[in-house]
Amino acid sequence: KALIITAEYDPLNVEGEKYAKLLSQSGVDVISKCFREVVHGFISLPIYDENQKNIWIDEITKLAKELGILK
To answer: Measuring CA to CA, which of 7, 10, 40, 71 is 20 to 30 A from 34?
Structure first.
C-alpha cells in the first residue's frame, strides 16, 4: 500500500504522479493526492496558517485510513 502526496508547485510533482501510476500498474494499492496551489514541504512551512495545515493533515489522515495505513 502507498499514499503519495504531491504539491502542485513542486518540481517533483510529475515524478510523484508517475511513481504512483507505476506502483498501481504493478498491483500496489495506491492513493495519490496532489494539493493545489502549494509548494514542496507545504505542511512544515510557516507561510501557511495553522488552520489550513490542520485541514491538510486531516485530509491526509483520512486518505491513510481509507487505504488502511492508519486505523
So the answer is: 71
CA distance 26 to 4: 15
User: What is the chain's pLDDT, residue by residue, as a tens digit (71 residues)?
Assistant: 999 999 999 999 999 999 999 999 999 999 999 999 999 988 888 888 888 898 999 999 999 999 998 88
| Residues 9 and 39 sit within 8 Å (Cβ to Cβ) | yes
71 grid coordinates: 486505523
DSSP per-residue letters across 13-70? HHHHHHHHHHHHHTT--EEEEEETT--TTGGG-TTS-HHHHHHHHHHHHHHHHHHTS-
Amino acid identity at 50: E
